[in-house]
Amino acid sequence: MCSIAVKCFATTTFMFFAHVSAQTMTLQPSSISVGGGVAPTDVVVMECKSERLISPQSVYSMYIRRESISFAEIELGKSAVVSQNAPSDIKAKTPTLEGRIDANNLYNSHLKATFLVSKMNCNDAKSYQCVITYKPVGMDTTTRSAEMELRVNVLPRDLQISAALSEDYGVVPIQNQSIIDRGEQVEFSCTGYIGSSQSTIIEWFKKTPPSTFFQRHFPTQADDIIDDGLPVSTQCEYMRTSKLRFTMTSSETARPAFRCEVATQLSSGGEVRVLSEEFHLTPGFSPSNGADKLNAWGNVLVWTLIYLSLKTIFCN
Questions:
Q1: Residue 281 in 3-state DSSP?
Q2: Distance (Å) of CA 9 to CA 37, 113, 298
Q3: Which of 120, 178, 266, 295 has the fewest beta carbons under 10 Å from its own?
Q4: Is 0.85 surpassed by the pTM of this model?
Q5: What 3-state DSSP class applies to 117?
Q6: Residue 114 belongs to what domain range?
Q7: pLDDT single digits (tens) 272-298
Q8: How many CB atoms lie within 10 A of CB 279?
Q9: Whole-number Å distance between alpha carbons of 230 and 242
Q10: Which CATH number is 61's domain given?
Q11: Do 241 and 190 contact (CB within 8 A), yes or no?
């Protein structure tokens, strides 16, 4: 289970050519975030317009391309359609198309493609072009284009926390809220996607009752460590597994809780923070290191022998 909060503000990069200004193509927004916490209604709208053509006599066709391959088109007298040779991944995203070539008002022609952000991924971070074939007054038929860039930031997601008890013969997986005795060491593991930056690390947080707030946790015992692990590339995002070793001490009188988090700073200044589930430990009352355990069992044996001796004396 993850919670996430995102704020984004986009900047725009474009190129334009003769007879077509930058306003011939619009791309809103020009920067999106994918990977987690995306609202199901978030969309990207790409629109090709004829309103800035210079002295058009006729407009014949309009195309929207990703790099050099058309995926949406409209011709004079026809409806907007997905291009026959459109990339298969764009077809799978099922963009909504609309548009018209208005023979009575050539400046009013347009072609629009709307994508759900939830269906987009880092492979969509490419250049997109508006291409218009038209005939200017007194000139031959020509093709003009404008281009814009879509930026895609991959958000961290799917943090999974687990824990195991360190024993002399290895580690034994434990469940949430397990009882951990004083001196026993728990090894937490947190695995998830950390986004598009391999330098992003997983952070550990601890909550100690009666406080209701999590605070950044750093090991305090000699044998406790945090191992950030190495980033593993998976197409255009990274996975990482971080480990935390925590030793239960006598100072832990209440039930501590742990969780892992990933924070990503966006170029817009916003922050994305993904949280794992909470993992609770229940402090036990028995010592667990070898000497203490031996002494504990020794005390039990002594008192058992005393009890049996007294029972024998008084019963006889």
A1: strand
A2: 16, 22, 67
A3: 295
A4: no
A5: helix
A6: 14-153
A7: 899 999 999 999 876 654 444 444 444
A8: 21
A9: 8
A10: 2.60.40.10
A11: yes
